[in-house]
Amino acid sequence: MLLNLKTSVLFTREKPATSAGEVIAWWEARRPIYNLLVGSAGLFSCMVAAIDVLASHYFHSGDAALPNPPLFVFLGIFFYGFAANLCYTGGWLAELAVRKFSSAQSERLAILSFKFGLAFSILLSLFPAFIFGGFGLIAAWPHIFGGR
């Protein structure tokens, strides 16, 4: 059975939030799922990049295209995760700001910003996989299908 996103507990509120604490609690209850989904997309991108670097080294017998020192890879991953969570926090901050003017609009904003923010974060995390995968496939094409 396919997950119906419109009625999923992840993308709905049982009742409108009546306080700032309830707004924050709604967002924070979803943070682990957000981190799991965005982190999985990031892990997939890292695996594609690693395969590309290894294939490049194998096919071209050159140095792998790793940052020097390789510790920078882990620092980049850490800071990306930190920035993603900082932006996630912006979701409930924006809802609290809009709530001062219209609580009905803040409910709508919460659902839409969570949905679109999650989708954008996943796509942004997958972007390196598309870049590394695309360029890696182009570079490996002659080796896979002959022509060299």
Write the layout of secondary structure elements.
Elements: H1 20-60, H2 71-99, H3 103-145
Task: Write up this protein.
The chain is mainly alpha-helical and 148 residues long. It has one domain (23-63, 75-141). The protein is built from three helices and no strands. The chain has helices at residues 20-60, 71-99, 103-145.
Briefly summarize what is shown.
This protein has helices spanning 20-60, 71-99, 103-145. It is an all-alpha fold and 148 residues long.
What are the main properties of this structure?
mainly alpha
Ranges where pLDDT stays below 50 over 5 or more residues in a row are none
Assembly type of the chains comes to single chain
**How is the biggest beta sheet arranged?**
none
How many DSSP E strands? Answer: 0
Overall structural class, as computed from helix and strand content, comes to mainly alpha
Order of helices and strands: HHH
Kindly give the count of domains.
1
Inertia-based shape: elongated
Please give the share of residues in helix: over 70%
Q: What's the number of helices?
A: 3
Q: How far is the first residue's CA from the last residue's CA? A: 48 Å
Provide the gyration radius in Å.
20 Å
Instruction: Please indicate the percent range of residues in DSSP E strands (runs of 2 or more).
Output: under 5%
